[in-house]
Design goal:
By secondary structure, the chain is of the alpha+beta class. The chain has 2 domains: 62 residues, no CATH class; 51 residues, CBS domain Like (Alpha-Beta Complex), CATH 3.90.1280.10. 41% of the residues lie in helices and 14% in strands. The strands form 2 sheets. A two-stranded antiparallel ribbon has the order 1-2. A hairpin with a 5-residue loop joins strand 1 and strand 2. The longest helix is centred in the N-terminal third of the chain and has 15 residues. It is elongated. The protein binds zinc ion.
Length: 140
């Protein structure tokens, strides 16, 4: 469950999410148990009214209130994108010779943008020509 808290001026004030899942060795009956349904139902409204900067322990205490809860591990999470200029190079090469030649003729640097992290990578004409050389000559 994901949620975004929007202020009265329509500016996002915060966002967060909760992932609750059965452990891998849970049996099918666990998914239909009343406890599991209760926990699932508690997640929905909780996402809409999560206080900003709520501690994970507080959120878990609300979701699992009245149930036997024990924390077995805790770890920080962070957004990390694995994109790189080299990955974009490989993606450009998969477009093929014709597309790369078009980009190289444009005489302006080619701008690529990662859709996950919005990082921008630029490829100048010389770089595009180098990629074309790496593709080899199709007439050879
Ligand atoms: Zn990225």
């Amino acid at each position: 469950m994901l949620g975004v808290l929007i202020g009265t001026d329509l500016v996002p004030l915060g966002s967060g999410g909760i992932v609750v899942q059965l452990l891998p060795d849970a049996v099918n009956d666990d998914a239909s148990s009343p406890h599991w349904r209760t926990v699932s139902q508690r997640c929905r409204p909780l996402v809409r009214c999560l206080p900003l900067n709520s501690a994970p322990e507080e959120i878990a205490a609300q979701v699992f209130a009245g149930l036997d809860l024990s924390m077995i591990d805790k770890m920080d999470v962070a957004f990390n994108c694995e994109c790189s200029k080299e990955r974009f190079e490989r993606a450009l090469i998969t477009l093929g010779r014709q597309e790369l030649e078009q980009f190289a003729r444009a005489a302006e640097p080619l701008e690529t943008i990662c859709h996950f992290c919005s990082k921008r990578y630029f490829f100048n004409v010389g770089h595009l020509e180098q990629l074309l050389r790496e593709l080899g000559n199709p007439r050879e």
